[in-house]
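U., I forgot to send this yesterday:
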Amino acid sequence: MNRRSIPFSGFILVLTAVLMTFGCKNDQEKKNRTYTLLEGPVFGTYYRIKIDSEIDFTPKIDSIFQAINTAANSYVEKSEITTLNQTGELKKPSLTFLKMIKEAQYFQQITNGYFEPAIYPIIKVWSFENDGATMQVDSLELERLLNLLPMESSVSISDTLVRVTKQGAKIDLSAMGEGYAIEGIHQVLSKARVENYMIEIGGEIFAHGKNEQGNTWTIGIEDPSKALSNSYENIITKIQLNDQGISTSGSYRKFYTDQQGHKYPHIINPKTGYPVKHHMVSVSVKGPSPLIADIYATACMAMGTEKAKAFITADSDVQAFIAYYEKDSLRTWSSPNFYQTQTH
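Result:
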């Protein structure tokens, strides 16, 4: 099944695992290129962009970050998403906000509700935004909040007015913020005909062309069982990217442990309102759109191993690498074309 390609349309519902980029020397092409490096904090995480160009793209990139912050950052007091959540309506929404919320509603349906922006009140109840968590949530309160889902029945969207149709419903677009920003930066660089670049925000990556050594960009995916080592030896697999994005989400770095030693990942199943109980610990989704990769990685972590496998294999435009535990042993699965590099 081919799902439609999307135009350019942080704060993540699930933890985005760190991906590492590697440069390998090519004996046939020894001259190294000098790339411009742009980096800094954004969306509560970090961005790093390598560009094979002398053009200063900083103003355009900063404007993309600012537009997303103003439109969809739930932690910004006067952002559009904050206004919607506090007052129940947003008049004259910006183009950025409209594009993001329309994409969010579309992908909520495509993922059968496993990508669910209206889950925000449930996340707040569990206190997963903070360092701690509340593990004794009232079941009746949880049932009431689940009735605010799905997003398509709790929010009305028009070009001039976005309105909450169920009292108490609130929306969070964090799970698509990084992918949306990368999509926008990619469009800027592509329009300027930049041949080689790599964009990374919080572990979400899009790569095009060649790296400084003249090779296809190589990305390392973190081994969940060795995540705390913080070294390049904790790589479970590597792939090459050209004109493709990859997003990794996982449950192995951020979780809550109760007094009995039970671990609860900071990932909520939108179908139950409770933390997921499956054994999948990370998923890396690769595809031509960094936004789709970002959203699908979030959705797959909520689905669990078997549903995620079926979901990925049903879409010929995306591939995935999944790490999961089976009888205390770490297992992996990859879709048939996961290691295939886009060619032109």
